[in-house]
Specification:
Strand content: 25-35%
Number of strands: 13
Shape: elongated
Structural class: mainly beta
Distance between the termini: 15 Å
Strand order of the largest sheet: 5-6-13
């Protein structure tokens, strides 16, 4: 039986909707809808109810290809399960299964946590940024966060009036106290500031050569003791990195996500064809 198209010019409610939410009278939002849920869009790839709205990884097979271009993320996510044009708001916790690739700034009103509670920046050696070398054919380049050719940490702040900067306590045993870069920025007026000495890798003593007050910011970068990063190496892919790749999970050439989506989509398509 062929079901005719349904056109809703005002509002559509499925379930115990609240008309107040979509306005009344002159403020009524035409063409709006309320679904009490749950709802599924796309292939029903969810064995159990996972949310109020569940979006599967395939466009409508009746639509003409290409469905949703995936070139914006190096082609690894095509077709997308969800594409959003313009700003979007996420209210509440957001769980992401897979890699997150962003072409714009990601702003959040709260903590952004990955790897099921472990912040991804804690894995500096195991989660590098690996890419083809920009100017040496047949070579590759590996950086870690903060992106740079070393495994390092930093601290910054305002120099105390007494000129004694207390380095983070967790730097003891983490960084090389003999390999620090210390920058001082005078505030308000020129000051002849200098680093007199570094005390046992725990304190930085700043002096004003004229004997005046100190009003300045500081920025200190220190190399980690376990810095064994190989920045430039010969190879065709990240698997050629001579330092090992244990824990390696992402680079923009990685086709794991693409393959995962393709296999799941093919499986679901075959299942639908068999049912029909």
């Amino acid at each position: 039986m062929k079901v005719p198209d349904i056109f809703v010019g005002k509002r559509l409610f499925l379930g115990c909707g609240n008309p107040e939410a979509l306005g009344r009278g002159p403020t009524e939002i035409r063409g709006s809808g309320y679904l009490q849920g749950p709802t599924i869009t796309g292939i029903p790839a969810f064995p159990n109810i996972a949310g109020t709205a569940m979006i599967g990884p395939l466009a409508n097979p009746e639509s003409l290809p290409p469905f949703i271009p995936g070139a914006m993320c190096y082609g690894i996510n095509n077709p997308y399960s969800l594409a959003v044009a313009g700003p979007s708001a996420l209210m509440g916790n957001t769980d992401v299964a897979g890699n997150v690739t962003a072409m714009i700034n990601v702003q959040a009103q709260g903590n952004v946590i990955s790897n099921c509670g472990r912040h991804i920046l804690a894995l500096k050696k195991d989660l590098p940024f690996d890419m083809p070398h920009p100017n040496k054919e047949g070579w590759r380049l590996r950086h870690v966060c903060i992106e740079g050719p070393e495994i390092a940490v930093y601290c910054r702040g305002k120099v105390p009036p007494d000129g004694i900067i207390h380095l983070p306590t967790f730097w003891d045993g983490l960084v090389n106290p003999e390999d620090m870069s210390i920058s001082l920025t005078p505030i308000g007026s020129w000051q002849e500031l200098y680093v007199e000495k570094v005390m046992h890798g725990k304190q930085v003593i700043v002096k004003n050569n004229t004997g005046g007050n100190i009003n300045a910011d500081y920025y200190i970068v220190a190399r980690r003791l376990d810095d064994d990063l190989i920045v430039e190496y010969e190879g065709e892919s990240h698997e050629d990195y001579p330092g090992g790749n244990e824990g390696y999970s992402f680079n923009f050439e990685h086709n794991y996500v693409e393959g995962l989506i393709r296999d799941m989509v093919n499986e679901k398509v075959e299942q639908i064809e068999e049912e029909n």
